[in-house]
Structure formats: structure tokens, C-alpha cells
């Protein structure tokens, strides 16, 4: 009978997923973000660089594995989340992402602001209204929420650390000297499927210690939540992959620190306040520190006479198939030294059936790349440089 109850609650929990507005909002949010990005790519480069929904590409393995492990740990540990907690958390995720950007989707913000609302709201609601929302803060299970916060920060750190040179988004911006330079945007969003244990249902406690939070009635149910997490960071002074690794390591340290405080809050409840405060302030400090340091750096993607710096690679093009990477410098094309785009394409036209390039990688070593060119291949190979020519031509046409 106990197994039947678990299976029934599991099925009901999955069914409730499709009633959750977070599921549909996550799809809409991804679509809005992709549409805005593609519009900017067409404006700056004359074409679409990345496909729709690429902001969620390569996140599914982390999302699914993370969701399974989190759900198993929460259910096995008997961590119960009351409906007010889940309602406020879901509403906060929608509210902080309503602009279509992922800047505030970090768990430090979504969980942090939810915590402070849950800390303040119940007494106020009880005092000024007749709503039956308990003022017993222990029933809100701040320790469980703090543990979930630490786990989501860990997932965010992994998403940063998994970013490759082909998974960041190139942009053009005016530099301090008025010339167009390149920059990249680190941007990802993931949906974590999380089974939460909630009050009321068919599941009965199977041990004295389960659940951790005892609720009158001692029966529980399951609900599947599509919880969102993400980030968005502009990088101009260093290679985007290096920036992602640097930020990822900082967020990883913050996740472990928050996790330690969350465990401590089981014995000393006040530490839950410290955990949320540290996560919120720490995540904002990581972004602020990187942003300020990046401003002091010279633009990494800027015109140079020593060759052509690759700002972006369009997926599926000859440049992508050749294994060219963002941040590498093309110094020779078909044996000819190059210093600007005109020389580059002139050198390519010297042998329209074959392409041979000398590219200097991030270690300063020369790589030799070659490929036969076929009819239908884009003549520009699929490489994006930091230039203003297309923007100027587009402005002239619109004018």
C-alpha cells in the first residue's frame, strides 16, 4: 500500500507540472530572449548567428541530473516545503525575469528575495488580514530552502564552467575612443525539474525522523516544479571562456559556503538568515567585481595590424568545421600575410577551390588549417570580425 501511495502521488505530481505557470513562462522567456538576440545579430552582423532557444542548449544534462539528485536528496531526507514557500518562490522567478533577461535568475536573487518576503509577510498578513497563512516560521522550513539555494548555486557554477568558446554571444559596441569593438555575452537559462514534498497527500511517514519537518496530520504529497536558474554577464576585456571559468569558480566557492551555513541552520536557525544574506551579497559582489575589473581592461576584440581576431564563429559553417575558435587570430590566408578584412577575402579569392589558413591560438602557437571549398559554401567562411561596415551599410539603407 505504501508503494501504491508513492506511485499515485508521483503521477499526480507530474500531472500538476502542466498546471504550473512556470513551465509556460520558461518557454516564453526563452523565446523572448532568443528573439531579441537574433534581432540584434541581424542588425550588427547581417545574419542570424545562433538558433532560437540556444540559450538553453547544453543545459539539459545538468538540469536533469541535478533535478534527479536534488529530488532524491529532498525526498530521502524528508524535507517538506509548504505551499506558501513554493508559491512565493515561483512568483519571484517570474517577477525577476519579466524583463526577458537572465541577470536576476541566479538562485541568490530568486531564493534570497523569496526568503525575506517569507520572513516578513506572514506576521503582517496575520495582523492585517484574516487569511489562514501561518505565522509559525518553523513551518516554512528555512533550512530546507537554504539547502536548495546552495544546490542551485552549485548548478549555476557548473553551467558557467561548462561554457565553451562556441556558446557565447558576440556583440558590437563603441569603445572609449569611439571605434567599434567586440564583446561577448555569457547567457544561459536552465529549467530544473524538482519533486517537492508538500503537506497533505497519501504518503505516510515511514520512520521517526521522516519527515524532518513534522506537520499535523503526518501525510504528504508530491509536486513537480520546473524551477528556473540562469545568468547573464557581458565580457569585453578578456576571452569569454576565461571569464566564464573565473566567475564559475567564484560561484562554486559561494555555493559551498552557503551549503555549510545551511547545514548549520538545522542546529541554529539564525544561520539560515546568514546563509541567504551571504548568498545574495556574495553573488552581487561577484558580478560587481568582475564588471568593474572588466571595465578597466582594454577591449580584447579590437582591430589590429597583426592579423584578424575572430569575434565569433557561425555554427555549421566551414569555419566551424575547421575547428576555428573565438579569440584566435588569423595571420595568413593562402600564404598571404593579412592585416584587415579586405586583404583576407582577397587572399581567399586567389584560390576559390581551396582555403589554407595560419591561425595563432591562445598559447601563441601557429595552427595550420586547410579545407576544400565547395559550391554553396559561404564565401566569408562563417567568421565574424569586430567591424562596423555592415552596421554602416544597414544605416545607409534604412536612411
UniProtKB/TrEMBL annotation:
Ranges for domain PDZ: 284-363
Q: Which SMART domains match?
A: PDZ
Under Gene3D superfamilies, the record lists: 2.30.42.10
Entry coiled-coil feature ranges: none
Q: Which residues cross the membrane?
A: 59-75, 81-100, 107-125, 145-165, 186-203, 251-281
UniProtKB keywords: Membrane, Transmembrane, Transmembrane helix
Pfam name, any one:
PDZ_6
* Protein name in UniProt: PDZ domain-containing protein
Amino acid at each position: 500500500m505504501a508503494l501504491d501511495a508513492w506511485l499515485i502521488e508521483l503521477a499526480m505530481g507530474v500531472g500538476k507540472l502542466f498546471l504550473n505557470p512556470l513551465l509556460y513562462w520558461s518557454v516564453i522567456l526563452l523565446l523572448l530572449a532568443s528573439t531579441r538576440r537574433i534581432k540584434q545579430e541581424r542588425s550588427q552582423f547581417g545574419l542570424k548567428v545562433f538558433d532560437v532557444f540556444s540559450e538553453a542548449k547544453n543545459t539539459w544534462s545538468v538540469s536533469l541530473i541535478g533535478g534527479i539528485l536534488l529530488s532524491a536528496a529532498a525526498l530521502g531526507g524528508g524535507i517538506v516545503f509548504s505551499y506558501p514557500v513554493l508559491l512565493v518562490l515561483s512568483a519571484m522567478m517570474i517577477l525577476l525575469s519579466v524583463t526577458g533577461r537572465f541577470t536576476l535568475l541566479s538562485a541568490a536573487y530568486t531564493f534570497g528575495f523569496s526568503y525575506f518576503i517569507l520572513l516578513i509577510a506572514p506576521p503582517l498578513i496575520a495582523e492585517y488580514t484574516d487569511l489562514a497563512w501561518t505565522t509559525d516560521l518553523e513551518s516554512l522550513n528555512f533550512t530546507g530552502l537554504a539547502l536548495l539555494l546552495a544546490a542551485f548555486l552549485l548548478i549555476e557554477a557548473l553551467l558557467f564552467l561548462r561554457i565553451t568558446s562556441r556558446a557565447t554571444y558576440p556583440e558590437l559596441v563603441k569603445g572609449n575612443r569611439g571605434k567599434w569593438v567586440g564583446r561577448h555575452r555569457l547567457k544561459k537559462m536552465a529549467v530544473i525539474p524538482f519533486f517537492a514534498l508538500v503537506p497533505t497527500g497519501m504518503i505516510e511517514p515511514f520512520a521517526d525522523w521522516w519527515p524532518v519537518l513534522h506537520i499535523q496530520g503526518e501525510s504528504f504529497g508530491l509536486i513537480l516544479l520546473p524551477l528556473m536558474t540562469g545568468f547573464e554577464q557581458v565580457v569585453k576585456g578578456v576571452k569569454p571562456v576565461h571569464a566564464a571559468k573565473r566567475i564559475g569558480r567564484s560561484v562554486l566557492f559561494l555555493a559551498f559556503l552557503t551549503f555549510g551555513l545551511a547545514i548549520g541552520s538545522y542546529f541554529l536557525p539564525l544561520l539560515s538568515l546568514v546563509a541567504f544574506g551571504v548568498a545574495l551579497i556574495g553573488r552581487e559582489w561577484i558580478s560587481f567585481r568582475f564588471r568593474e575589473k572588466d571595465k578597466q581592461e582594454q577591449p580584447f576584440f579590437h582591430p589590429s595590424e597583426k592579423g584578424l581576431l575572430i569575434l565569433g564563429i557561425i555554427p555549421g559553417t566551414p569555419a566551424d568545421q575547421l575547428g576555428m575558435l573565438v579569440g584566435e587570430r588569423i595571420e595568413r590566408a593562402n600564404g598571404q600575410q593579412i592585416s584587415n578584412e579586405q586583404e583576407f577575402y582577397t587572399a581567399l579569392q586567389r584560390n576559390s577551390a581551396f582555403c589554407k589558413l595560419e591561425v595563432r591560438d591562445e598559447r601563441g602557437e601557429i595552427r595550420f588549417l586547410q579545407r576544400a571549398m565547395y559550391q554553396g559554401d559561404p564565401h566569408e567562411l562563417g567568421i565574424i570580425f569586430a567591424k562596423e561596415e555592415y552596421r554602416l551599410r544597414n544605416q545607409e539603407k534604412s536612411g
